[in-house]
Amino acid sequence: MPMSEKSQKPHDRMATFLAADMLAVNDLIRTRMASEHAPRIPEVTAHLVEAGGKRLRPMLTLAAAHMCGYEGRYHINLAATVEFIHTATLLHDDVVDESGQRRGRPTANLLWDNKSSVLVGDYLFARSFQLMTETGSLRVLDILANASATIAEGEVLQLTASQDLATTEEVYLKVVRGKTAALFSAAMEVGGVIADAPEAQIRALFDYGDALGVAFQIVDDLLDFQGDAGAIGKNIGDDFRERKLTMPLIKAVAKSEAEERAFWERTIEKGKQTDADLDTAIAYLHKHAALTDTAVAARDWAAKAKSALTPLPDHEVKHMLNDLADYVVERIN
Amino acid sequence: MPMSEKSQKPHDRMATFLAADMLAVNDLIRTRMASEHAPRIPEVTAHLVEAGGKRLRPMLTLAAAHMCGYEGRYHINLAATVEFIHTATLLHDDVVDESGQRRGRPTANLLWDNKSSVLVGDYLFARSFQLMTETGSLRVLDILANASATIAEGEVLQLTASQDLATTEEVYLKVVRGKTAALFSAAMEVGGVIADAPEAQIRALFDYGDALGVAFQIVDDLLDFQGDAGAIGKNIGDDFRERKLTMPLIKAVAKSEAEERAFWERTIEKGKQTDADLDTAIAYLHKHAALTDTAVAARDWAAKAKSALTPLPDHEVKHMLNDLADYVVERIN
């Protein structure tokens, strides 16, 4: 391929390849987020849906369907479904986390209120459910219903695990599989199911989405301690301030000595933090190589995602998915 | 029938008639609200699900299925689905309304927190979706997906309509159809659909549920101004304090003169209320016969519900549904 293409980011190459489909997805999203009776709904959703997210999840569904030779139109429904579920969880996360910004813009619950975020999120869940029912595929419905339950379960688990220094990497992985990877894997899987792909390919799609999602979230959690606030669109140290036990913290806590342990108990368990504590926390993370070890874990998951692609048909989208797994962990540097 | 049966409340007679089914529904609810990974979930849901609600909505589904001669087992799934959707909306309402009690007990968001209420509600929505997918009926999925969207839309509409003195009875009816009647009508309708009843009967089931739901909500809104706090399990005047424009208020505002108008602007639009204002509000409601006119409207809807039953097969459950419509408005006295 020409240099100019090679140098493009993989999700931009996917966006170019899937441009016609993505136009159809965006049209469907705009149509279905409208509400005859409640104009507040499109006001709130437009803020999120038009906010210029990368639309990564719906692209995964479209990519999977294309790779498996699908020629129908229901992949458009499913891509919109996946984006609606994602947007609904963002709206509910904003209520939950009391976070101050999302994608570099104020969250909906600051612009409107918690009430609107909860109810408009519910509306989008219901709409996503209508969109997938239209496909007439009970297997697709089953996959996305299970994914929705797993997402909510992961979020609740995160709630009870945060502030708890006993949280292990195993629990962290369950949280990540729920809150992030479940939708990535379902987005891939339904693309294969709607294309009536062989079972081994459907399994491969699931495995790729699962590993990509885990890698993606680990990197996100890593960047929370070492990223550039402008680039990642959120504040450095948010997770620390919200007392979330993410992989870097779990690794550092596991190696902490008495004095450090007291620091974590005060800042994470008791939530007594001063402005200077974030720097101290980051120093402890460096001391125990928690950030570099976390980067290694993220790269392992990206490698798993790439090797999961093996059973899938050769297709230009397959190369993009391969490069996407690399790109997700390139964000670390 | 013996006097002792006749003197029983109609929903108690339904509960007796449907006792075996309701045991199966309760078992299914308990099984499906469990979570392997997140023990917080059953803690929160048990609080609501075990709180001794009347289980009116699932009984409607069971009743409709029996009346239409259904002999399978999926009505159990659908009854549990309907109760899960209802419980999820209660959890999200509690966040939204910041109300202090529900069914006479503290709300989940006071016992736990808003985060748990939002996320556990999401979990129940996803679980309800799994339960209905198991029936394999796309028509049932379509009905319940639409009902879920209508419920959320009604709640958002209520959000924008509250504090707004320009709210008409037409807007109020849309809110009520959404937040209450949509689930009543869907609960009835899916019972007929799963039984493969003739279309005219399915329509009749929908119409009964719709009219019963509207009557039920109008009575609820009426009792908010004239009920007995102990009996209805919530505080008198909650809607007034939350500046909700329900039917009694809309009727009184429509007839208000200058001085009263200023009172409503201060208390509802501007939200500047003192403890004495509720008594003044109630006095204005009596002055314009707003409470008695609202009672008339509720009785009209109950009559509509009863006449909707006409096309349905003669069945002992049909008599109970007829009496249930009467009972809903009897609560006024």
Automatic annotation (TrEMBL), chains A, B:
SUPFAM superfamilies linked to this entry: Terpenoid synthases (SSF48576)
Assigned keywords, A-Z: Magnesium, Metal-binding, Transferase
InterPro entries (alphabetical): Isoprenoid_synthase_dom_sf, Polyprenyl_synt, Polyprenyl_synt_CS
Annotated protein name in UniProt: Octaprenyl diphosphate synthase
UniProt entry tagged with the keyword Lyase: no
Cofactor: Mg(2+)
Pfam families (UniProt xref): polyprenyl_synt
Recorded family membership: Belongs to the FPP/GGPP synthase family.
PANTHER family membership: ALL TRANS-POLYPRENYL-DIPHOSPHATE SYNTHASE PDSS1 (PTHR12001:SF69), GERANYLGERANYL PYROPHOSPHATE SYNTHASE (PTHR12001)
Enzyme Commission code: 2.5.1.90
MF terms in GO: all-trans-octaprenyl-diphosphate synthase activity
